[in-house]
Write a structure and sequence with these properties.
The chain is an alpha/beta fold and 393 residues long. It has two domains: 129 residues, Aspartate Aminotransferase, domain 1 (Alpha-Beta Complex), CATH 3.90.1150.10; 242 residues, Type I PLP-dependent aspartate aminotransferase-like (Major domain) (Aspartate Aminotransferase, domain 2). The protein is 38% helix and 15% strand. The strands form four sheets. A seven-stranded mixed sheet has the order 2-8-7-6-5-3-4, sandwiched between helices. Helix 2 packs antiparallel against helix 9. The protein is globular. The protein starts with 15 loop residues before the first helix and ends with a helix.
Length: 393
């Protein structure tokens, strides 16, 4: 009899999005004439920019002619895209080699796959509230999980604690779900902590493009010593609208070693063993993101989403509720009014105001009493939802 991975039985049932969908379905069945204002799921609503579309069309045409046809792609990514990404980092003051960059099918895939580099006996520190995949991927592996709670007192940006140690450290900045962003001083403390303890940081930078404040780091490699303790996982999903086309990249410096082994070399072996590379067409589209035309296009879309955030923040300010995020993030993490539970507020907003958000408790116990809004919807819907939120006063 085959023995299965029994750690799957240790996973807690995630009722968050199932419950949301069921509640929304029931409401719509009773109120088919009501328009809903969806600010829950973090999916983009604007199309790919013109530079990317042109590059995708051109790449499709390449596949139609023998002299320009491409079959299997290099497992770690095409040189043209790896070099383009490394050059982009250089314009921001971070020196990387193209060999440090690995092209992926998206940050979500990579966050799970990257755990192959670590023995199951290693422990993982998760700052909560957290993106659920951090926790579940490690539960599936049978790994010990160290929970580090955060809250209003530290702006949901906790500092390392010498009494709370782990081998793998998850840091997401700008954070999903809280929208909070580590400043240089705080992020440097995490880098110093990791180097001092031999830990490895998994830095989820999926939302770095939303950071406007030059005082805030967009890459962990802006910190001294990060090249010896950190892996950076990035995505073009929210940066450039690639949620439906799937493309991201991971940076593993060749200077990152543990126990005499190079994590970069290990990842090369992993990718060449487990993947056949990302589509040529998609990689060409990704390369266009980093051209001047592409940057102008994606920044225009990001400004659109950030304007949505401003509209929501204006209303929350008028209500007088505490929140974080929004300014350098596509998420707003709001304290519920009058001590309401997260699901209580969800039901109130849905049934009375037709607004859909995400209950904070779905991201862990530290999220109880908080609520997440996504700013990826249309401005028209955001404006109407913001007006309705004012009724919470």
């Amino acid at each position: 009899m085959v023995k299965l991975n029994e750690h799957y039985s240790e996973l807690k049932d995630s009722y968050l999005f199932y419950n949301i969908s069921q509640k929304v379905k029931a409401y719509q069945e009773k109120n088919p004439d009501k328009k809903l204002y969806r600010m829950g799921i973090g999916d983009v609503s604007l199309p790919l920019c013109d530079a990317v579309i042109k590059a995708l069309h051109s790449a499709v045409d390449d596949q139609s002619a023998k002299e320009s046809f491409h079959g299997y792609m290099p497992e770690c990514g095409s040189p043209f895209l790896r070099e383009t990404i490394a050059d982009f980092y250089y314009t921001r003051g971070v020196k990387l080699s193209a060999e440090d960059v690995f092209v992926s099918s998206g940050a979500s895939d990579e966050l799970g796959d990257i755990l192959d580099l670590f023995d199951r006996s290693s422990s993982a520190l998760v700052i909560e509230p957290a993106y659920p995949a951090y926790l579940d991927a490690n539960v599936m592996a049978g790994r010990k999980i160290v929970h580090l709670p955060s809250g209003i007192d530290n702006g949901f940006l906790p500092l390392p604690d010498e009494k709370v140690k782990a081998d793998i450290l998850y840091i997401c900045s700008p954070n999903n779900p809280t929208g909070a962003v580590f400043d240089r001083e705080k992020l440097q403390k995490w880098v110093d902590f990791a180097n001092a303890n031999g830990s490895v940081i998994l830095f989820d930078a999926a939302y770095e493009a939303f950071i406007d404040d030059p005082k805030l780091p967009r890459s962990i490699y802006e910190m001294d010593g990060a090249e010896t303790c950190a892996i950076e996982i990035c995505s073009l999903s929210k940066t450039a609208g690639f949620t439906g086309t799937r493309l991201g990249y991971t940076v593993i410096p060749r200077t990152l070693t543990r126990n005499g082994m190079s994590l970069n070399s290990m990842w090369v072996r992993n990718r060449t063993t487990k993947t056949n590379g990302v589509s040529y067409i998609i990689q060409r589209g990704g390369a266009a993101v980093f051209t001047p035309e592409g940057q102008n296009g994606i920044k225009e879309n990001i400004r659109y989403y950030k304007n949505n955030a401003r509209i929501l923040m204006d209303s929350i300010d008028k209500i007088g509720l505490w929140y974080t995020g929004g300014k350098n993030s596509p998420y707003i993490w709001m304290k519920t009014p009058s001590g309401m539970k997260s699901w209580e507020l969800f039901d109130l907003l849905l049934n009375d105001y037709q607004i859909i958000g995400t209950p904070g408790v779905g991201f862990g116990e530290c999220g109880e009493g908080f609520f997440r809004f996504s700013t990826f919807g249309s401005t028209e819907d955001t404006e109407e939802a913001a007006k309705r939120l004012l009724k919470l006063r």
